[in-house]
Specification:
With 117 residues, the chain is mainly β. Helices cover 0% and strands 50% of the residues. The protein contains no helices and eleven strands. Strand 4 and strand 5 form a beta hairpin. The chain is globular and about 45 Å long.
């Protein structure tokens, strides 16, 4: 059974920092592209950052220079370090394990991040 369990969300003031974690089980973590997405109320889910098995990163323009995605393959965990948070970063953040040729993608249950002004 595949599980992606996010943690680390919460309420923070603008300019503050949070670190999200996503612990994966039931998948071969090291070969998957792992990603973070977010969905604000009334908006579509959007990509925040991805990190391939080969350590290539991709960031949304809105978070470049503020957010950093990283992974620890020994712990089957992907992280999202979020600095200089803005109220517009408020959303539910979802962890994603990317699809493989022989396997579908998987999603976590989401963790709420609220940034107050």
């Amino acid at each position: 059974q595949v599980q992606l369990v996010e943690s680390g969300g919460g309420l923070v003031q603008a300019g503050g920092s949070l670190r999200l974690s996503c612990a994966a089980s039931g998948i071969i973590f090291s070969i998957r592209t792992m990603g973070w997405y977010r969905q604000a109320p009334g908006k579509q889910r959007e990509l925040v950052a991805t990190l391939t098995a080969g350590a290539t990163t991709n960031y949304a323009d809105s978070v470049k220079g503020r957010f950093t995605v990283s992974r620890d393959n020994a712990k089957n965990t992907v992280y999202l370090q979020m600095n200089s948070l803005k109220p517009e970063d408020t959303a539910v953040y979802y962890c994603n394990a990317g699809a493989l040729r022989t396997s579908r993608p998987y999603w976590g249950q989401g963790t709420q991040v609220t940034v107050s002004s």
